[in-house]
């Protein structure tokens, strides 16, 4: 089992950049496939980025291609979400998630961090 804590959210302006962090507990963090989801007000949660435990497989939603990227530092038990050229439609709660599954089916979730992009 892993516990996840996100940080780095805030209020930014359109065009700005932001980096979110997600720290996982435990010694086996490197064995988890990680993902970032977001949920805009009134909308369903959206899977935006995924990175397999090996780093070989990735998932990038069309809505964020070219602007958002994911990376991980297993020595720090941390996964990052780099957000560039932010748009008001990127506003939402961003969640970190983890799984030991070979598919993008996540079992563990953080509490979320709010990102608000003003126009």
Structural write-up:
This protein is mostly beta strands and 119 residues long. 0% of the residues lie in helices and 50% in strands. Strands 2, 4, 5, 6, 9, 10 and 11 form a 7-stranded mixed β-sheet that branches. The N and C termini lie far apart (40 Å). The model has no long low-confidence stretch (mean pLDDT 96).
Helix-strand pattern = EEEEEEEEEEE
Number of strands: 11
Kindly name the structural category: mainly beta
For the termini, the CA-CA separation is: 40 Å
Strands, helices and their partners?
Elements: E1 4-7, E2 10-13, E3 18-24, E4 33-39, E5 46-51, E6 58-60, E7 68-73, E8 78-83, E9 92-99, E10 108-109, E11 113-118
Parallel strand pairs: 2-11
Antiparallel strand pairs: 1-3, 3-8, 4-5, 4-9, 5-6, 7-8, 9-10, 9-11
Please give a handful of descriptors for the protein shown.
4-stranded antiparallel β-sheet, mainly beta, 7-stranded mixed β-sheet, 119 residues
Describe the structure in brief.
With 119 residues, this protein is mostly beta strands.
